Amino acid sequence: MNVQDKACQMTDPGVVEAARLTIAAVERDTGLTKDTLRVWERRYGFPNPSRNAFGDRLYPIDQVDKLRVLRRLIDAGHRPGKVVHLPMPALMMLGLQEHRAPPATSAQPLAAAPPAAQVGQCLALIRSRQPEALRRLLVQSLLRLGLERFVLDIVAPLPGLIEEARLRGEIDSFDERLSIESLQTVICSALATISSPGVAPTVILTTVPGEGQGLGLLLAESLLCLQGCRCLSLGVQTPLWDTVLAARAHHADVIVLSFSHALNATQVIDSLTELRQKLPASTRIWAGGDSPALRRYRLQGVELLDGPHEIAAHLARWRLTTST
Description:
Layout: H1 3-11, H2 13-18, E1 21-22, H3 23-30, H4 34-44, E2 50-51, E3 57-59, H5 61-75, H6 80-83, H7 88-96, H8 115-127, H9 131-145, H10 147-155, H11 158-167, H12 173-191, E4 199-206, H13 215-226, E5 229-233, H14 240-249, E6 254-258, H15 265-278, E7 284-288, H16 293-296, E8 303-305, H17 311-323
Parallel strand pairs: 4-5, 4-6, 6-7, 7-8
Antiparallel strand pairs: 1-3, 2-3
Helix pairs in contact: 5-7, 8-9, 8-10, 8-11, 9-10, 9-12, 10-13, 11-12, 12-13, 14-15
């Protein structure tokens, strides 16, 4: 939200009221369940929503922004009781302190710096609105590190840090979109250079309706292609029945699905449950992404990909079980 938008909210009571979210909207937006929000309110005094004429909770935007950051920190291992009371600047520092980049020197070109420093330099270029320089740095890092290390060390941590920079007001939404598009473009170009025809398993990659974020799919596809898999990407927001038909037509061994916190827990669970019912038991389902529902509700017949670094282990287990 920019300064002008905030000023409008201060002067227009109707806008202020409209900017307050219901508990259902906060659950969808942050990935925190309604029960968690109520428990935190009772135990920690935060969030502190107001009530409308019907007694329903209404959450102001600044509290929702803080809840998004808290969810990401808790997913990273922080305990709620230790972080809920912290002010927003302190919460942001927890997420960024490992990615502060030293200034570049002539003795250490950007693309030759350690991966954590390169991530910091990418963030600096995004903040200073240099998309062309960002893309050059990404290409240089890819050439130096190779696709696997580039995906795991540079691309994987960037989206979360970019989102946090937007929440702090350091960048706008269009800056976030530009940077994610740059990441996707560089990875797509790298994928086009992989000449291996691919062998088993045959993997179909997609997202369910309502899930429009595709960067996670590209990360998974990159790592799977490097392992010699036959990868078929359907893109994002594929109807469930189309995914089932594609799996049948191509005799898919594995379906890889990516979920962000854009979908609520019910949407995630219902989609996975329906796909599991429609697909044969021999077709594995691997689900990854930053949706808290994947970790809170474990479904039989659905394997959790808890980050791109787990893809090699999942693939090794598949090949071991199918070869015996």
